[in-house]
Design a protein that fits this description.
The chain has about 500 residues and is mainly beta. About 5% of the residues lie in helices and about 45% in strands. The chain contains 1 helix and 40 strands. Strands 12, 14, 15, 16 and 18 form a 5-stranded antiparallel β-sheet that branches. Strand 38 and strand 39 form a beta hairpin. The protein is globular and about 55 Å long.
Length: about 500
């Protein structure tokens, strides 16, 4: 065998163990699949980014870090979150205090920069660790986890804002840096203040393009191309400054030319409160949007077809008793490159549910999300749920509370059995586990386990046991002065393991 080929294979295998991502491609497409016998091993290193949580002086923010206990890991490791900004060696922050952008101060007069002090350092897998911050001074955070802390490492930031634009409960799962993100459901309307937060965790600048799409196609933007995001910074870009058009339903596409960023949209409404809009799953022909609360008073579906072909989708609501068709909204037609939206009203009618979108004919990749409103009059609050990946092997969600936590699971295409585990509490408590069977085509608001003797908050892990794919979402509710404050986070696979080819398998198929 060619020695160069062997070296490339060894390098790819090593990358899989370190980063969780690897691909070995054979030049012979007719060759047998060498990954069929690949071993599933715990990832050994992962990274996350958390945007600046709020600009409100009234914000009370909680960060929660958690790693599930995973078999096969070593005994060493570390998980740390640090401010995205760097510090100069003379003790001054090398950043712009308003935006978090690196200012380069540490490079003057021969003074260098150093990594900011750790904000939160995990202590042990299986137990959440929480940290509280008051006001608007909390910076964006970046973090890495390795060894026993890497598989399934999950961080949540939850901010309570008592008053003002975007008041309510704003929750976001911190995201892995990447190069491509889709956000259907943003807005440039006068009563919305929406920011795209771009967090650069690396030592070199990233160059990012932001594209906006409305009901008639791409919006003309003034400064959306070639945005430079400085190293170790959070650059919040106000969408309304990118275009003169004022639209309620906009799809945002963030693409990275060089480097990588974590991206998320903070949507703040003058009357309906605010929350974070997470990225939709990558464009696909069928999508699932899980966990719409049963007391939702208004549900709006926003979708976008990014390719050159129109998309026609069946719209189904997976209820506790099975899939039903929303009256008057049996299908949704999306013109290529144009954002489509449909108001489903109070479609939930007192029952939890999930939206299932499937092609009526030819499959065309789409992205989608829903905006959910709860409450009435001045007591209304809003949240967003993007289409998401299945739970897969295991999904994790943190910052669950003794009261106000709701877990919804849906099995859109076939019955499934799952195991749900509540971790120990951040300040005390004993883990607990329950198993559930989700009938095909239904959404179940399950009575998730709670740690006995709970003190503080806890994590929930959902593991697939058998059957079809499962999608899930968690809702936190915290009533504030008559406002139905809430936030929803989906439960995609936490990617705690990676497939690595076995060392003793036959690699001769790769010989040229």
């Amino acid at each position: 065998m060619n020695r160069t080929t062997l070296s490339l294979i060894a390098c790819a295998t090593a990358l899989a163990a370190v980063t969780g991502f690897a691909a070995v491609t054979s030049p012979d497409t007719s060759a047998p699949d060498t990954t069929a016998t690949a071993a599933e091993l715990p990832v050994e290193r992962t990274s996350l980014t958390c945007p600046t949580p709020s600009v409100s002086d009234l914000a009370e923010t909680t960060y929660t870090s958690f790693t599930p206990v995973t078999k096969g890991t070593g005994s060493d490791g570390k998980a740390e979150l640090r401010p995205a900004v760097t510090e100069s060696t003379d003790g001054e922050d090398a950043k712009d205090g308003k935006t978090g952008k690196a200012s380069g101060k540490g490079d003057k007069d021969g003074k260098g920069e150093k990594e900011a002090k750790a904000f939160l350092t995990a202590k042990e897998p299986g137990k959440p660790l929480a940290e509280d911050v008051s006001g608007s001074d909390s910076p964006a955070l970046v973090g890495t986890a390795d060894g026993k802390f890497a598989p399934g490492w999950t961080v949540q930031q939850t901010a309570e804002v008592a008053a003002g634009t975007g008041r309510g409960l704003l929750g976001a799962a911190c995201t892995a840096p990447d190069t491509d993100f889709w956000f259907p459901g943003a807005s440039t309307a006068a009563d919305r203040t929406d920011y795209v937060h771009l967090v650069n965790p690396d030592d070199s600048a990233a160059v990012v393009d932001i594209e906006l799409y409305g009901r008639d196609g791409a919006l003309e933007t003034t400064t959306g191309e070639g945005i430079t995001v400085a190293p170790h910074s959070d650059d919040p870009v106000l969408l309304s400054t990118l275009t003169t058009e004022k639209l309620d339903n906009v799809t945002v596409h963030v693409s990275v030319r060089s480097g990588r960023v974590g991206a998320s949209v903070q949507a703040l409404d003058d009357k309906l409160g605010g929350d974070w809009l997470g990225a939709s799953v990558d464009p696909a022909g069928s999508l699932v949007i899980p966990g719409i609360p049963k007391d939702a008073t208004a549900v709006r579906l926003i979708a976008f077809a990014p390719g050159d072909a129109d998309a026609d989708l069946k719209v189904r609501l997976a209820s506790p008793t099975g899939q039903i068709t929303p009256a008057g909204n049996e299908t949704l037609h999306l013109k290529a490159g144009m954002t489509g939206a449909v108001d489903l009203g109070d479609v939930m009618r007192g029952e939890p549910g999930s939206l299932v979108l499937t092609p009526t004919g030819r499959s065309v990749p789409v992205v989608a999300a829903v905006r959910v409103v709860r409450g009435k009059g001045a007591g209304q609050e809003t949240a967003f749920i993007p289409a998401t990946r299945p739970v897969g092997t295991r999904a994790t969600v943190v910052d669950n509370r003794a009261k106000g936590t709701t877990l919804s699971l849906t099995a859109p295409f076939g019955a499934a059995e799952v195991k749900v585990t509540a971790s120990a509490g951040s300040e005390g408590g004993t883990p607990a586990t329950k198993s559930f069977t989700i009938k095909a085509g239904t959404t179940q608001q399950v009575e998730a386990p709670v740690p006995s003797g709970l003190k503080g908050t806890y994590a929930l892990t959902v593991e697939s046991v058998s059957g079809g794919e499962v999608h899930g979402a968690r809702t936190i509710t915290d009533a504030q002065d008559g406002v139905s404050a809430f936030t929803v986070q989906t439960l995609p696979d936490d990617r705690g393991t990676v497939a690595v080819p076995k060392a003793d398998q036959d690699l001769s198929v790769l010989q040229q």
